[in-house]
Amino acid sequence: MEENQQLAASVVQHMMQEDRFSQWLGIEVLEVSVGYSKITMTIRPEMVNGFGIIHGGIAFSLADSAFAFACNNRNNLSVALDTAIQFTKPVHVGDVLVAEANEIHSGRSTGLYHIFIKNQSEETVAVFKGTCFRTGKTLI
Question: Which pTM was predicted?
């Protein structure tokens, strides 16, 4: 089991080194295990829309990164097949978000993941569901 955990951490570390967008978002990886990831970021002024709340694409991108880290960390290159997000609370500049991705199903060719995004007050601000396709190729 420890070997799988080390592989999961190595894959996510490799992904972050190559992921310029997640770097630009300011994402930090908090925790990784097989089929799971937990990441965080702080909302900056350039991430909000004209209403003064987070642009939906920013929240989606945070969830999408958590999804990618969770579904790829077995070292089986996986890509998004279908995704959806529901926004439940507004997010503002300075808010600290945590996205936690949990594996619901891991099959040979697909995987299903639920990602909850919470703010610093532990309020759920968005819920994301993603299905991935596993290519069978390795990342590292």
Answer: 0.97
